[in-house]
């Protein structure tokens, strides 16, 4: 089959690789009909996630048709159209039983790698480094799905791939990030980052009862999409975001703040140069400019929600502000399985059409071009969908 393989920083290639096979009775083989490039994939593309190996198949947002099943999978049939959550979860462990699916104890065969850095391992993830399982991803023609009896969600007739493919990651990620804000009626939520996750977070915050959402970015087309979602917008290149947020909230600050950017945030001035220099020589793995700004901006007693991916270590975090203001932090890889059915109902009811975020549709062989325009924000690119 054909697949998009990682070969190093800024180097992904379409290659012929062996077809996946059933290994475990709970496996399924899915013929992929739609997949996508995620902002998290850019961290791999930019070389910031350790334990990648040349030839690794990328991609963790994908869906398709079941073409083969292991003998233990009874709730899915060959021919079913399914979406595949990006975390791989067994359904039986301590964490899965507590609805903490991205913390599954049994799906990462390389847990020892993650434990060295994190103390404990999260779940395995499709197409996202050997530290997180080394699983082949979904930017391919076919994929093997472990624990298919737990992970696969059958899609009813009448919905297009583009309406449901983002149930695999960015729609639940934006929704969980908004849920983590613990929104109360009348709340003001400030969201840094108007990429795909930020866009879903904006709309999810309103679905959960926010009165106002303020979105922060610098890319015109992203800001416009946020404005189309009823957000008030701030361009961080044109003003002091902290001062603007004070003015917009009567001096109190937002009730909740969200870092939907993560480890590759663009800082301004000396702080930005400091982070880039330390990251370049690996004295700091991640650039936390947005996280610093969000902590300082949040009102006293507020909540900091972090859906943006962080991979290692950060520097100069204002913990004094966080502690003395009594802030609550909520974060983590998304527990996608928790949200699949409720968000599918929102799509079926017409509350949201997730396809609004798509700006580019490309065949699989043009994925390297898709990575480039997504990374460099060229051609008004916000979200790339690939068709194998």
Note down, in words, how this protein is organized:
The protein is α/β, with parallel strands linked by helices and 388 residues long. It has two domains: 2-168 and 334-386, Medium-chain alcohol dehydrogenases, catalytic domain (Quinone Oxidoreductase, Chain A, domain 1, Alpha-Beta Complex); 170-331, Rossmann fold (3-Layer(aba) Sandwich), CATH 3.40.50.720. 29% of the residues lie in helices and 21% in strands. The chain contains 13 helices and 18 strands. Helix 6 (196-207) links the parallel strand 11 and strand 12. The longest helix has 13 residues, at 336-348. The mean pLDDT is 96. Residues 8-386 form the Enoyl reductase (ER) domain. This is Alcohol dehydrogenase GroES domain protein. GO terms for molecular function: oxidoreductase activity; zinc ion binding. Belongs to the zinc-containing alcohol dehydrogenase family.
């Amino acid at each position: 089959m054909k697949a998009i393989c990682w070969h190093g920083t800024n180097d992904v290639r379409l290659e012929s690789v062996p077809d996946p096979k059933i290994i475990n009775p709970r496996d399924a083989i899915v013929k992929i009909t739609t997949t996508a490039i995620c902002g998290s994939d850019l961290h791999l593309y930019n070389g910031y996630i350790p334990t990648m190996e040349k030839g690794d198949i990328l991609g963790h947002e994908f869906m398709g048709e079941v073409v083969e099943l292991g003998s233990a999978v009874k709730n899915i049939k060959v021919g079913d159209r399914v979406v595949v959550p990006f975390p791989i979860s067994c359904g039986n462990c301590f964490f899965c039983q507590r609805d903490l699916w991205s913390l599954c104890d049994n799906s990462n065969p390389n847990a020892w790698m993650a434990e060295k850095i994190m103390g404990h391992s999260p779940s395995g993830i499709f197409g996202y480094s050997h530290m997180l399982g080394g699983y082949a991803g979904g930017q391919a023609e076919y994929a093997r799905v472990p624990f298919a009896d737990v992970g696969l969600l059958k899609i009813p007739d009448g919905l297009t791939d583009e309406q449901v493919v983002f149930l695999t990651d960015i729609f639940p990620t934006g929704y969980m990030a908004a849920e983590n804000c613990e929104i109360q009626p009348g709340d003001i939520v400030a969201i840094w980052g108007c990429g795909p996750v930020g866009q879903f977070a904006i709309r999810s915050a309103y679905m959960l009862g926010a009165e106002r959402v303020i979105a922060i970015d610098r890319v015109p087309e992203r800001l416009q999409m946020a404005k189309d979602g009823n957000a008030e917008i701030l361009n961080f290149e044109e003003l002091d975001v902290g001062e603007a947020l004070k003015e917009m909230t009567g001096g109190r600050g937002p009730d909740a703040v969200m870092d939907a950017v993560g480890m590759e945030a663009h800082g301004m001035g000396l702080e930005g140069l400091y982070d880039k220099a330390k990251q370049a020589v690996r004295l700091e793995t991640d650039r936390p400019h947005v996280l610093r700004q969000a902590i300082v901006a949040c009102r006293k007693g507020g909540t900091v929600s972090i859906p943006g991916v962080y991979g290692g270590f950060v520097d100069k975090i204002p913990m004094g502000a966080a502690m003395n203001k009594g802030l609550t932090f909520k974060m983590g890889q998304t527990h996608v399985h928790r949200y699949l059915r409720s968000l599918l109902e929102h799509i079926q009811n017409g509350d949201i059409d997730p396809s609004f975020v798509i700006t580019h549709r490309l065949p699989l062989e043009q994925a390297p071009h898709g990575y480039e325009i997504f990374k460099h924000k060229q051609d008004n690119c916000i979200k790339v969908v690939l068709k194998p």
